[in-house]
Every structure is written in C-alpha cells, then in structure tokens.
Write a structure and sequence with these properties.
single chain, about 300 residues, alpha/beta, five-stranded parallel sheet, four-stranded mixed sheet, 12 helices, about 15% strand
C-alpha cells in the first residue's frame, strides 16, 4: 500500500507536506479517484486532514461553511468530526482519536446536480462542462474507475437543456457533455430537445463505439441518430480507442470492443457529416505504454496504434 500510495498520489502528498509546514492552519482536503478507491487507507498513507469520496459537493459546502466561521483549525476539524459522526456530513474520510473513519456513504442522485453560478463570468473561458450522465453502462474495463464512483445514471434531458439555456444567458455557447460513455438514445433525446427549443450551441461528447448488429443492418439508423446530433450542435466526438491492438483491448483492458467497431462508427460519423454538410472531428485516446502480459512487444502495439493515420 505504501508503494501504491507513492505511485498514485505521491506528488499531492509532497505538496500537502509543504502546506502543513509553511501554513499549519490551512485545512487540506483531498478528492478525486484515490480516496474513493482506497477508502480509509488514503488518509493512513497521506497527510491530508480530510478526504471526500465519490460525489463531494455537499460535503465540501458543509466544510466551507464551518471554515468561514474563522475559528482555529483544531476547532473546525473538531466540529467537522462531530458532524461526520452524526452523519450530517456524508461521503467524508476524517481522523478521530488516532484512527481513520468514513461517514455515511450517500448515493448521488444525478438530477440534484447543482448548476454553477459563475459570479465572475468575465474571467471564465466560455466553455461549460455539463453533466448528462454518470458512470458507465458497460463498467468492465480493467483500467477505468468510473464504475467505482457511480452506478450508470442519466440526467433528464429537461434538466440538461435547462442548464444549457441558463448558460446561454451568461454568454456561454460552447459545451462539453461530461458523460464518459453515454447511451446514444439518451444523447439523441437531449439533441432533439435542443432542436425543438431552437438553441444555437456547439458541443462535444465522449462516446462508445457502435457494434454492427448481426441480425439486422443498423447503419442507416445510426447515421440518422448522428445527423440529429450534428444538427443540434455536435462538432467533436472522443472515443476511448485504448489500443489499436485487438488482443490488448480484449485480454488486457477487457474493453469489449474491437477495431472493426471503431471503423464502423467512424464510417457512420463520416456519412452523417456528408449528408448534413456539417464537419465533425473525431478524437481517439490511447493508453501507451501499457501491460503486455509478455505476449507482445510495445513496438507492435505502437504500430497498430499508428495505422489510424492511414485511415
């Protein structure tokens, strides 16, 4: 565990050590995948005062409210500990009498997601990341933490489009859908509502590659879906290709998708782009270097990755 902590969050640990040395009254709070994955071990192997697991917005708001009282660090941490032990602060890792504890884990309801206020909008880059879904409907990739954070859930199209409209009033028209692997039917419903509302926006999204249906030809159906998305403002799609080597994706990453699926999906996007006259960019992400299980050389994987330059 010490080795894991050094590899996965070594730099934050060093940073906190300096904060504790030069600003001992500063309360340090960690978030992100490490506390969620490692739980109480995270605080055992770091010098953070507190950590939030999974969705931490509610806990952070409670903690900031106590910090604003201006009390000493020890007094604030004492009050935080009491609230955590009474389960009035959820999803919190904290220290108590030499041990590490976690308050009640609260399941996050996606439709309760707060919309950012952006009080200093003039200083903001005019791009807004919007939550359309959380988790992943597949959830079996060996390298991914999304299934450790959330069960797959979809935010209602009405709330998504409502948030888009609130951002348009602030002068923001560029959006990124944050879902790591949204179901196409859900993004279609969001896009259809954008079109019905007559909103003029541009957005990008992550997506999973589509498989060919062995029982019936779905190519034209998928093209129609992407045509609607493009008309609603889609301009870039990012795919987790992970590797151009099918053996790596199958045996190392448990990806559940093959190169032929990616080619099929790219053909769908190209056709939808041609029919609408709307350009769409495709981004592919690769994991490299990667475990080889002693079965193939990294140079071989690299060549398989680069073959996409010719497609």
């Amino acid at each position: 565990l010490k080795q894991i902590s050094r590899l996965t969050y070594g730099r934050p640990k060093k940073f906190v050590e300096k904060v504790n040395r030069y600003s001992p009254e500063t309360i340090t709070l960690a978030g992100g995948p490490q506390p969620t994955i490692y739980g109480t071990y995270f605080l055992y192997h770091s010098n953070f005062d507190l950590a939030v697991v999974s969705e931490g917005e509610s806990a952070i708001l409670d903690i900031l409210g106590l910090i604003k009282t201006g009390k000493k660090k020890s007094e604030i941490l004492s009050e935080i500990r009491k609230k955590a032990e009474n389960n009035s602060i959820h999803n919190l890792l904290y220290r108590s009498d030499g041990s590490i504890k976690m308050s009640k884990r609260e399941k996050f309801e996606i439709d309760t997601k707060k919309i950012p206020e952006y009080p200093e909008i003039e200083k903001k880059t005019r791009v807004h990341v919007i939550i359309d879904s959380l988790g992943c409907p597949y959830g079996n990739c060996s390298f991914c933490v999304h299934s450790k954070f959330y069960e797959y859930s979809k935010r209602s199209p009405e709330l998504v489009v409502g948030e888009i409209k609130s951002m348009l009033k602030k002068g923001i028209g560029l959006f990124r859908l944050a879902g790591s692997c949204p179901q196409m039917e859900h993004v279609l419903k969001i896009s259809e509502k954008i079109l019905r509302e007559g909103l003029n926006i541009r957005y990008s999204m992550f997506a999973s590659t589509l498989r060919q249906n062995k029982e019936r030809d779905c190519f034209s159906e998928h093209v129609e879906i992407y045509k609607t998305l493009l008309k609603a403002g889609l301009r870039a799609v990012f795919f987790g290709a992970e590797s151009g080597n099918d053996c790596v994706n199958r045996d190392v990453f448990n990806k559940g998708r093959a190169n032929k699926d990616l080619i099929y999906t790219a053909m769908i996007l190209r056709k939808a782009s041609q029919l609408t006259g709307i350009n769409v960019d495709i981004g592919l992400s690769y994991i490299y270097p990667l475990p080889t299980l002693g079965r193939f050389e990294l140079e071989e994987v690299y060549k398989d990755n680069m073959i996409w330059q010719k497609k």
